[in-house]
Specification:
With 71 residues, the chain is α+β, with helices and mostly antiparallel strands. It has one domain: Beta Barrel (OB fold (Dihydrolipoamide Acetyltransferase, E2P)), CATH 2.40.50. It is built from 1 helix and 5 strands, in the order βββββα. A hairpin with a 7-residue loop joins strand 1 and strand 2. The chain is globular and about 40 Å long. It starts with a strand and ends with a helix.
Length: 71
């Protein structure tokens, strides 16, 4: 069963973002007007911008993948 990760949305007034861990292909840091975030690329070709630092997002993704592997 796939693990769903909840992130804060990126930008003013953005809500929560839910991403299925298995769909993530890669991610990279972004910074617009001094606001740090992370762009997550999905296997569908779409990109999702979320709030947070690259290290924290990486940790959340790794924890989700590890929990999924042990389930």
């Amino acid at each position: 069963m796939s693990k769903v990760i909840t992130f804060r949305g990126y930008g003013v007034g953005a809500g929560e973002v839910f991403i299925v861990a298995d769909r993530i292909t890669h991610f990279r840091p972004i910074n617009y007007n001094g606001i740090t975030g992370v762009e997550i690329q999905l296997d569908t070709g779409k990109a999702v911008n979320i709030d947070g630092y690259l290290y924290d997002v990486k940790k959340q993704i790794e924890e989700a993948m590890n929990a999924q592997a042990t389930a």
